[in-house]
Design brief:
The complex is a heterodimer.
Chain A lengths: L1 H36 L8 H10 L11 H19 L15 H9 L1 H12 L3 H32 L4 H6 L6 H4 L1 H14 L23 H26 L10 H19 L8 H30 L1
Chain B lengths: L1 H22 L3 H21 L3 H25 L15 H21 L13 H9 L4 H22 L4 H5 L19
The chains are: A mainly alpha, B mainly alpha.
Chain lengths: 309, 187
Amino acid sequence: MPDSAVSAGSALAAAGILGLLAVLAAVLDGFLTARAAGGGPSGLSRPVGEVARLMRQRRRTTVAADTLLWRIGSAGLLVMALMIVTVVPLGEWTLFDLDVGVIWFNAMDVLAWAFVWLTGWGANSTHSLVGGYRFLAHGLAYELPLMFGLVAPAVAASSLNVGTVADAQQDLWFVVWMPVAFLAYGTGILAIAVWGPFTPALGTDIAGGVTAELSGVDRLVFQGGRYALLAAGAAFAVPMFLGGGAGPLLPGWAWALVKTGALLAVFVWLRRRLPAVRPDLFMEVGWVVLLPAVLVQDLLVAVVAVWRT
Amino acid sequence: MITHISFWVFAVVAVLSGAAVFWVNSMARASYALALSFIAVGLQVLLLHQNYIGVVTILMMVMEMAVMAVYMVMFMGMNPALMPMNMVHDKRHALAAAVGAFLLLAAGAVLIPWPARRGTPPAGVTVALGEELMGPKMLVMAVVGAVIAATIVAGVVLAAHRTRYDRLGDDLRRRPANDPQPGGVGR
């Protein structure tokens, strides 16, 4: 049994690292929020206060709620993030070195469609259901660019294995010569975390949307899941676009963590820098601008890949 | 051993959640029971070392069920989908047909004399399976894929009641277009 004992230990370690990154993201967001408000405390302890508040908050109940689906939806984002990091290599270690890791990421990221909508559905509340449909409208626009964005690194590396994709970037990071794919990927990550421009699903104009009736621990795991998804998305971008653990002096795992932290900080920072995108208007942007641009990117990458062999 | 036990657990989950589609009384629960059933099947395929097909099954089916739940709730007549509703029509005949079909297929799977394995599995089992299923018809299948996509687009174009003359005027010169729902690009 030593093997499974080791893998159980590293699974816990991976979950711990993801949790730590999510907490750091929440702390950074608290700091940026306090700075934007101006004056007052630094905001660094804001996540701690919020966790304490939600842990002792009494659960709100609604009439004829679909409790089973509601709980599944609100807890699901955190599970998604944990499943994503299983295929991400950290230095020489990978928890679940699947030969089709890129498709695995894709299968996990479409779960957001299910979980966010179910969170909106379960409460049996109009506002939260409207929020769920706003998310799906965003989903129709971001999902295909995200998928085709992931095609580019896989084609360039001729592999769906995440470690092999990372190793294929010894000379030049993929983000340098496939920036459009990286942009589509980043947009997708912000979207599955319902973050920044994709917050209309949680909009104040619909009383918090998907989260309108969420309270207590359910709200805590939903919001924690959003930070964890940002962290998992940043971690997955490192082997796909940012050269994996490549870098001078430091060992591979350290570089992977540094790059993940830096990209995560950018994701968190972008929240206050980008306007919210209206679901109905973004639909056309996704299909008329983003998708063709990513397809052209894939074509260029494929031509280069064929030419090099 | 663990593989065998997991395979059986996934099999039971797949069958039970498939049956749950007809027990539950809400569109959302029926859709996601079916999604759970497909996820269990995808995990079984993963246990068979068909990694690509297993993961793609999970990917496609979760997305399909999400889309199905959306459209069923949106477009069911007079929107009973927001209320509890029965998932079965013509209960007795449906039950008989379902049980009969299940028994027939299960009997086939159990009673057929399965051939013993000859040789060892090839390195790329997914490639081998694709060759076995498609073989020399790969070109036809690739062409059919493009034809299906073109048919879908043509069907939507023919079904849309607004044409480019409604959008852009008789001389096709009206800018921006007159759309009931403005787009984000400003065409």
